[in-house]
Amino acid sequence: MNSTQMDLSAVDTYLSRHLPGYQGPIEATKFAIGQSNPTFLLTTPKSTYVLRRKPPGTLLKSAHAVDREFRVQTALADTAVPVPKMYLLCEDKTVIGSDFYVMEHLDGRIFLEPTMTGESNETRTAVLDEMNRVLADLHDVDIAAVGLSDFGPPGNYFERQIARWIKQYRASETSHIPEMDALIDALEGSVPQDDGQRTLVHGDYRIDNLMFEKDGTRCIGVLDWELSTIGHPYADLAAVIMQWRMPPGTEGRGLAGIDRASLGLPSDQAFIDQYCQRRSLPGIENFGFYLAFNFFRMGSILQGVFKRAEDGNASDPERAKILGSYVPMFAKHGLEALED
């Protein structure tokens, strides 16, 4: 974590007035991971909290919706999906210059990549099984019962999402990328018929957005809900497989070329089958489309990260530029997925 500049006096005053049990003074450090909504560890003499805020500067419309993150995690508090406890949401921009929320600080561990270097095969197998379990439970949440029926608009989720991310991509475009244009055309012409599935979706479901207990394999928190909405569950499932198609290591964080069996890791199909079994599904047709959609969306997200670096608003400018350079690769993978 890195130290950060934030008006801690304003935060301290606000929390003293609005957060029961809070006692300052306060210190803050910024978590190094995360490019979208800056996240901070708040430390007081007696407690620790996590503060997540919108970034400063001019932002794309509908992006960085910390209010939605707060709402969905509050709604999931009593479900089988583990989330941190939400304490408060501040939409008064005069406090620190942007909306923010404060939540529980979970004391666990995050695996930055699915190879989980240094762990035993038993741990790797159990962690990915738990990742699969949580995803299936997420998609089985009764959205009406938890008050999230209006958390996303009706209609074909993929048509809606493709249109949204085309707009986001065009708004962030800094140079012409032929592969992205080709992928956009291909996706618009191959959207499956709506099969009626309408569930809560996380929008960025991957292993480094999950926190596990320190000495075990139980998931204690699903993090980073910025892209969550009501939509189609296969988008989340395909997001996992998309990540695994990336190169291994700290940049790609994938499993491409890895001998998975030797590490206790499931194949793509085994993970999909496990998920289908948990949700009593017969299988998934045309999975290549869902995979291609995720490659396109991630390419659009990375283009946005790069644009923020160009504009001087990125949380970590140098890393943002590196991530932005991967956009053509994601587009190429998306086109290949459509041919699977």
UniProtKB/TrEMBL annotation:
The keyword Oxidoreductase does not apply. It comes from the Bacteria. One of its GO terms (molecular function) is transferase activity. Residues 28-251 form the Aminoglycoside phosphotransferase domain. Pfam families: APH (PF01636). Keywords: Transferase. PANTHER family: AMINOGLYCOSIDE PHOSPHOTRANSFERASE DOMAIN-CONTAINING PROTEIN, HYDROLASE, PUTATIVE (AFU_ORTHOLOGUE AFUA_1G12880)-RELATED. This is Aminoglycoside phosphotransferase. It comes from Ruegeria profundi.
